[in-house]
Amino acid sequence: MEIPSKYSAQDVENKWYDYWMVNKYFHSTPDEREPYTIVIPPPNVTGVLHMGHMLNNTIQDVLIRRARLKGKNACWVPGTDHASIATEAKVVAKLKAQGIDKNDLTREEFLEHAWEWTEEYGGVILEQLKKLGCSCDWDRTKFTMDDDMSEAVIKVFVDLHNKGLIYRGYRMVNWDPEAKTTLSDEEVEYVEKQGLLYYLKYQIEGSDELLTIATTRPETIFGDTAICINPNDERFNHLKGKKAIVPICGRVVPIIEDEYVDIEFGTGCLKVTPAHDENDKMLGDKHHLEVVDIFNDDATFNSNGMHYKGQDRFVVRKAIVKELEASGMLEKTENYVNKVGISERTKAVIEPRLSDQWFLKMKDLAQPAIDAVLTNGDIKLFPKKFENTYRHWMENIRDWNISRQLLWGQQIPAYFYGDGKEDFVVAENSNEALKLAQEKTKNSSLTADDITQDSDALDTWFSSWLWPMSVFDGIRNPENEEIKYYYPTNDLVTGPDILFFWVARMIIAGYEYKGEKPFENVYLTGLVRDKQRRKMSKSLGNSPDALKLIGDYGADGVRVGLLLSSAAGNDLMFDEDLCQQGKQFANKIWNAFRLINGWEVDPSISQPNSSKIASEWFESKFQKTIVEIEDHFSKYRLSDALMATYKLIWDDFASWLLEIVKPAYQQPVDEQTLKSVIAHLENILKILHPFMPFLTEEIWQCIAERSPDEALIIAKWPETAEINEELIAEFDFASEVISGIRNIRKQKNIAFKDAIGFSVINSENVGATFDEVIIKLGHLDSFNYVSDSVEGALTFRVKSNEYFIPMEGSIDVESEIKKLTDELSYTEGFLKSVQKKLSNERFVAGAPEQVVASEKKKEADAMAKIETLKTSLASLK
How is the chain split into domains, by residue range? Predict the structure, then answer.
């Protein structure tokens, strides 16, 4: 086979990916082998490949390919998440561009558009993952809105409701006015923002007295239904039992007393707005206050906002401050920094809002998941530091708000048949709901027209928390062959930002529905950042095009570039130069293969001892590296595992082994040496394959014609063998000797074609095992063991061994004498100038201490160099 002079990733990658797909190497079915299972963290169906996906999925592919080589039944389940908020926003935007208002559509009509959008764009990211080399079992691709997946979600909702764990409650929730839906507490990010503290004046009813109250949200005065003072605050004793008038809206509200009020904050008084603040709502419930909602679902003012009706909350804030100022009811403003809740999805400022929502009781459900990670170690987090984060979240867990005011998603299976808050039933379908409603009302004449399904959808995470079970149909058919074989899965690879959103909830669901953990290990990757430590993002323009990187550097090059700097749990400082390094590594391996492939074999030649011993050394070095790699993998230090492999190939294989065994120019190689080098190369390809699958498969298939059942992707991981540590140590010593010879050749311009003599005083009692290797790589014409120094020779040391290269015949003595004489003359002149400066008392007394110290060091260095040069000259004369 003719081997191209340059490795072309573009020519190789599609060829081998198609080959792997055609031969179904990625597909898994239960058999007698040990399973190794990973479920992909399902990317949003709206997504395209970015650097975070590249890192996360490269790591998963490394783990799955390695398991396959180790003889396990590797199953990597891919899929996508329907991402209710993000996808609905995309569909709404598309409809708007077409002049269609979502509100003019029925649920069924909107869902038709959503499915069209999903079918057109939903598979983009999975196709892009194939370009990266991901060996997912594509036959198993799942989508969280597939019929069977949705059925599982509904089944779980009904079950949890029947257990008394899901309830409907009128509660203060986090409202996203852009997505027009409620969010769970975990979907709200709190960021510090510079704002103002506004001091507003409230008139006391029946008097001219004004009471000043500080607030960050003056626009919410339309929802004020009380003023609260601390009963222990003597400043306001005279106000107990009185009423105040809210500015602008003129509402008369009671002045209530509660120790909740912080006497030290602001003016020590609090305006109470029960409809728009969680703490105010608790005060309102306690004191039986009126609740006045002032916002529409998009955070514009409703009719309770009077003349501001229809205007945005932030527009109103500016306008109302002007109005309060004009009426004399604004005393002052102060700069104030406070934490503001932001929607994790849309980045809109969250509005606290009272609403009927569905909640899941979490405290009891969470306990087995707490024990699994923090008590009995059934599930291990890598790195371990994330256990503290997990503990904090789980031990402070709150009930999960699982309903969303969206159309895209699983519709909540609650059916209403009356006007009362409890006039509903929960069932898997409308037929069962009708039967339940008839039983509950004892009214058999109820018909399907009398019941209405809740219009809300379930939180997307309520489907993805079942992912490790639902992808194997473990909810609908809990005893099926696949769930029993593949569950629990082995490794989960994800980002720490969804440790609670997804990871903890999957653990909770696993114990609730399978009575065991969903996975054994959780490997938490870091975030991909740029060289300035900024998070990669489209808005900053610092995130490279993932597919362009693959086009420029090859998938293998990008994979290596990502992994070389990706320590578990630590952020990755991405630098495109890393991908270039990966590409250069691919070229290095390709050129090493081409070198081997170009050797001609002469069966009549016997193997040189230098080649035999080098092969034995490399085998031990390889085995030692395997042990190191296994240790790194056990600790999820994939970057270290790759670096160990990288050094083995670049340094030990290409730079040492091939140099030792390669035949002289245009000379043949013996059969045994070629055979052993090919065997070493094949073993290298096996351990490198998980990191660089395309390059390794290409070389593997070029080495020999192979049938599909001999492909590298399903080859056998190298077997372990005994490690000869003594041989490795002897080679390390020999390599230092060879480096010493090469350094002298370089310094003295001794051409490699010129053989040189060599002697050693063997104080270290080093064995002669690698003498022939030293002779070959040093190009020596003799190697003698001596007891005394060799006169007139160049010398260097390795530990206490002293090595000598006779100058006669090795170097041009006259040229060397002239060079050293010139250098001595220059150095002596330099020394005089330094000493002249130091003999100047004014300089020494006036110059800074560090300047004088620097000059004295120059003097000492020059004197030492002069002595060395004189010694070298004496040995030449």
Answer: 181-351, 546-723, 727-806, 813-876
